[in-house]
Amino acid sequence: MMADRGILVVVSGFSGAGKGTLMKRLMEKYDNYALSVSATTRAPRPGEEHGREYFFHTKQEFEELILQDALIEYAQYVDNYYGTPKAYVEKQLNAGKDVILEIEIQGALKVKEKLPDTLLLFVTPPTAEELKRRLVNRGTESMEVIESRLRRASQEAKAMPEYDYILINDQIEECVDAMHSVIQSQHDAVKNRSAFITKITEEIAVFEKGEEA
Ligand code: 5GP
Q1: Are 109 and 117 in contact (CB under 8 A)?
Q2: Contact between 56 and 43 (Cβ < 8 Å)
Q3: CB-hemisphere CA count at 13 Å for 94?
């Protein structure tokens, strides 16, 4: 029997909510996930590699990807472009993998509009104070960038009701397990179980014909 198609999952959340660590732990702890690598025009942070965290492109290269219709969605975030390459996501979903897109809200809503079965998860720290503390402690951005990300967070908070689930990232391991169980429960949603439903319905139909005991 062919593997069921994987679930497309979008994970968004305030910059500094701990999404990166969460994704890393999810991949380490559980099988069957594929993390989509986005294209971006922002500069690599120390330690980031082309093809691992992001595909780093010039603005011109990025605009070429848009023209080629090679992206499921793209958005501008704090002066840079970010977008999701289409081919990888399709391939992994068809192979039965659950594919995670870690993208911001404009992109998330575009994906949901295009592909309505997408599961939208929003990750947040328990408090606003904790959000600021995590951003400052990360030490990878200037105070100016941190402030623009905090301002943006207050806009982003308004989009939370558009999501399917809110995950509060207080204890990382608990949050990873909660995310895994929400995603896995989607596999049992009737719309994702059509192959099984067809099979067992056909098998049970045999009883209707009064099969000998
Ligand atoms: P960062 O620069 O901190 O890596 O990412 C900034 C924001 O861009 C994050 O909220 C991240 O989730 C989002 N992002 C990363 N990749 C994509 C993408 O492919 N599309 C969209 N729309 N947002 C993305």
Answers
A1: no
A2: yes
A3: 6
pLDDT grade, residue 140 (50/70/90)? Answer: confident
Please, which contacts does 41-49 make with residues 24 or more away whose CB atoms are closer than 8 Å?
Answer: 41/80, 41/81, 41/82, 42/80, 42/82, 45/140, 46/140
Mean pLDDT of the chain: 92
Q: Can you give the pLDDT at residue 1? A: 47
Report the separation in Å between the CA atom of 104 and the middle of ligand 1, taken as the mean of its atom positions. Answer: 5
Does ligand 1 lie within 6 Å of residue 169's CB atom?
no
Instruction: Give the angle 191-104-20 at the CA atoms, nearest 5°.
Output: 95
Whether the CB of 156 sits within 6 Å of ligand 1: no
| CA 24 – CA 20 distance, rounded (Å) | 6
What's the predicted TM-score (pTM) here? 0.87
15 lines ligand 1 (CB under 6 A): yes
| pLDDT on residue 4 | 78
Question: Ligand 1: which of 41, 104, 155 to mutate, most ligand atoms within 8 Å of CB?
Answer: 104
Question: Is 89 within 8 Å of 116 (Cβ atoms)?
Answer: no
Q: How many CB atoms lie within 10 A of CB 84?
A: 24
Q: In what order do the strands lie in the sheet with 165-168?
A: 33-35, 98-102, 8-13, 119-124, 165-168
